[in-house]
Amino acid sequence: MRAAPNPDLRLRAAAALAALALAACAPLAPRTTLPVVVRASPNFDERRPNYVIIHYTSNDDAERALRTLTDPLAKVSAHYLVARDGTLYQLVAENARAWHAGESYWGGDSDVNSISIGIELDNDGAEAFAEPQIQTLIRLLADLKERYAIPDANFLGHADVAPRRKLDPGRRFPWRRLAGLGYGLWCDPPYPPSPVNDDALLLAALGYDTSDLDAAVAAFKAHFAPDDETAELSDDNRALLYCLIGKKQE
Fold first, then answer.
1. Residues known to be catalytic
2. Helix (H, G, I), strand (E, B) or coil at 174
3. CA-to-CA distance for 133 and 247, rounded, in angstroms?
4. Can you give the pLDDT at residue 25?
5. Taking a C-beta distance cutoff of 8 angstroms, is the pair 90, 154 a contact?
6. Which of 221, 231, 145, 229 shows the shortest CA–CA distance to 183?
7. Does residue 82 contact residue 129 with C-beta atoms inside 8 Å?
8. Which of 84, 116, 203, 216 could form a cystine bridge with 51, CB 3.0-4.6 A?
């Protein structure tokens, strides 16, 4: 014998369907101060990040960093923080714009916050990055790359996008290791000579803001040539840059 439909279940199902319908056509909060007629459309999707920007916190422990990143007066945040012991904290939804990059630029984009995921690493800036932390970071990067189809070249450091203001994640960050896994670019020597000798042109082609050329050179070396602390680009540095540009275009 077939059981009679449960009226409570039918009511709950109907309510759920109604809620979905209302959500699809929910009225928008007007942004303009002008008189406006709202005609809500269901044809939209959420912010899709195309970059990942990696930072260090400059703090001695994760709790201090978390207090800063969640303090309304500090006006700074990130989507994730990875503690030294590998604990992963989420602070901002991925579809929201976190305040991590500040005044920034990369490859023609001058508002990196709007197109990126920000990840803070619990590190004081002078120490080596802890292995549990890097293992968690690698898993997080793999997850983000798969879900958002982020290109290899779009995994960057804060110093890359803000070279006049920032140094993080610094010379001790394992960029070569991450690039080998598909999170960033890397070239190993020997490099074919660069046919271009214009430093600003090469750095800009990779993505750097070259309005302060010295800062761009320093940020490039901290990322791609961490053992080279000289102030100018050598022929070997230019060859490295040219190799990286080629990989970016692949």
1. 120
2. coil
3. 28
4. 42
5. no
6. 145
7. no
8. 116
C-alpha–C-alpha distance, residues 240 and 122, integer Å: 30
* 84, two tokens: 């030294």
DSSP assignment of 154-182, as one string? GEEEHHHH-TTT--TT-TTS-HHHHHHTT
Domains and CATH numbers, the chain: 51-180 (3.40.80.10), 199-249 (no CATH)
If you average pLDDT over residues 57-83, what whole number do you get?
A: 95
Please state the pTM of the whole predicted model. 0.86
Evaluate if residue 8 carries a pLDDT over 50.
yes
**Residue among 177, 169, 117 at smallest CA distance from 144:** 117
- Length of the chain as a residue count: 250
The percent of residues in the chain predicted with pLDDT above 70, rounded, is 88
- In angstroms, the CA 57 to CA 129 distance is 12
Per-residue confidence (pLDDT) for residue 2, from 0 to 100: 44
pLDDT tens profile 216-234? 999 999 999 999 999 999 9
In eight-state DSSP terms, residue 64 is H
Amino acid making up residue 75? K
